[in-house]
Amino acid sequence: MEVFSLVLAAIAIGLLFSTFNILKEYERGVIFMLGRFHKVKGPGLIIVIPFIQQMVKTSLRTAVWDIPSQDLITRDNVSVKVNAVLYFRVVDPQKAVINVEDFMEATSQLAQTTLRSVLGQHELDELLSERDRLNRDVQDILDEMTDSWGIKVSNVEIKHVDIDESMIRAIAQQAEAERSRRAKVIHAQGEFEASQKLVEAAQQLSTQPASIQLRYLQTLTEIAGEQNSTIVFPLPMNILEGLGRLGASLQNGDAPNAGQQPAKQSAAAAPDKNA
């Protein structure tokens, strides 16, 4: 008889402990009465009637899930591996418990398929340079599809894009060619701007002939300051032009004199013949 009393007392104490439940601030309890949804309770002290009511605990804290590396082919037919991080939380415990069997597993599988489908619609350059936009696209799709499960996807971040070694070399060559092209364009633009400035400087110096002499003197000062052994004597262009005209006039004056000497010799030889 005493053993039976002890068993009854243990059962009563067990039922008493199962009746009172304490939920933390971030927890909610979905109460089912005779198999039907009753209400969502929590946080604090919760009374659950044994054998009549059942409670399913749900956490409202943000869950972080690492999406495994996914093999995909971009729109420009490049094979890459991509992994990401998913941040989500339960905003409606009733939907999270009733509408889906395991909302954690369902959300993770949906994130994997959505990541592959969204990133496969873009080229490799977009995948590397426009991650923020792609993160928002994946987040919006996941948030819309998990809304009926009472899940709020707060953020999706692409962690790493793994590219084949040959493709990495090709991208490096492409970047090097692009930098070379930009350098050549900048050099050509600099030459063009310098030529324009030289034309303007020449026009300005032509208005004052004495200014070119000052420029010569300044150039000599710069050369002497560098301790060079080369000595430069600048000559104005007008002096060179005068020397050129003088040389041309001397050549023109020698030609008539050379033609007159044979004529005089022939005239002197003519009287001797008559004699």
| Spans of at least 5 consecutive residues with low confidence | 261-275
Let me know the largest β-sheet. 3 strands, antiparallel
- Quaternary structure state of the chains depicted: single chain
- Could you say which overall geometry the principal axes of the C-alpha atoms support? rod-shaped
Nutshell version of this structure?
It contains eight helices and eight strands, in the order H-E-E-E-E-E-E-E-H-H-H-H-E-H-H-H. The chain has helices at 2-19, 93-98, 103-119, 124-129, 131-145, 165-206, 209-225, 237-274; strands spanning 20-23, 27-33, 36-41, 44-47, 53-59, 63-73, 79-90, 151-163.
Features of the shown structure:
3-stranded antiparallel beta sheet, single chain, rod-shaped, 8 helices, 8 strands, 275 residues, alpha+beta, Tetrahydropterin Synthase, Chain A
Describe this structure in words.
This protein has a 3-stranded antiparallel beta sheet. Strands 6-7-8 form a 3-stranded antiparallel beta sheet. Strands 1-4 form a two-stranded antiparallel ribbon. A hairpin with a 5-residue loop joins strand 6 and strand 7. By secondary structure, the protein is α+β, with helices and mostly antiparallel strands. The longest helix has 42 residues. The protein has 8 helices and 8 strands; from the N terminus they run αβββββββααααβααα. Among the domains are: 58 residues, no CATH class; 106 residues, Tetrahydropterin Synthase, Chain A (2-Layer Sandwich), CATH 3.30.479.
Write the layout of secondary structure elements.
Layout: H1 2-19, E1 20-23, E2 27-33, E3 36-41, E4 44-47, E5 53-59, E6 63-73, E7 79-90, H2 93-98, H3 103-119, H4 124-129, H5 131-145, E8 151-163, H6 165-206, H7 209-225, H8 237-274
Antiparallel strand pairs: 1-4, 2-3, 2-5, 6-7, 7-8
Helix pairs in contact: 3-5
